[in-house]
Write a structure and sequence with these properties.
157 residues; alpha+beta; two-stranded antiparallel ribbon; 4 helices; 28% helix; binds zinc ion
Amino acid sequence: LPICDMFATMKVADGVGLAATQVGRGVALFIYDCPDDDNRRHVGAICNPVVELPTGKDRRLDASEEGCLSYPGAFESLARPDHSICRGQDPWGEDVEVIGTGLLARCLQHETDHLNGTVFSDRLSTRARRLLTRQHDELAHLYPDDWPVTPRETSAG
Ligand code: ZN
């Protein structure tokens, strides 16, 4: 599996996470290179991810700007739990558990969503989704049709 290619794509696209389905790979895998709430960097790949979110009084929502490599250049505020735990397997088949805070909490939820067929615009209000789509349409000419598969051409231009 070309995980190295995915990391290269994510880096050039300036993303913090990338799901295999976004680059045309039909496998349940995502990669991440993302800071947490303490600005500590976390890098890895998770197969068959399942996200656990806090419930009850532990559940606090963080409404921050969110973007997606599938909507390049467009951002909208989306409230998500500020803490998440993602479990799955690493590329060697070992069970792995990643505890996410801050942007990493958001990233783990966003990428797992992708593998379940949900993009973050699905979680926006109708109005916010319209604004996101408008931003995306205005910037779409800057990106190749198969972005983020071939982001290099964009960064060159
Ligand atoms: Zn995305």
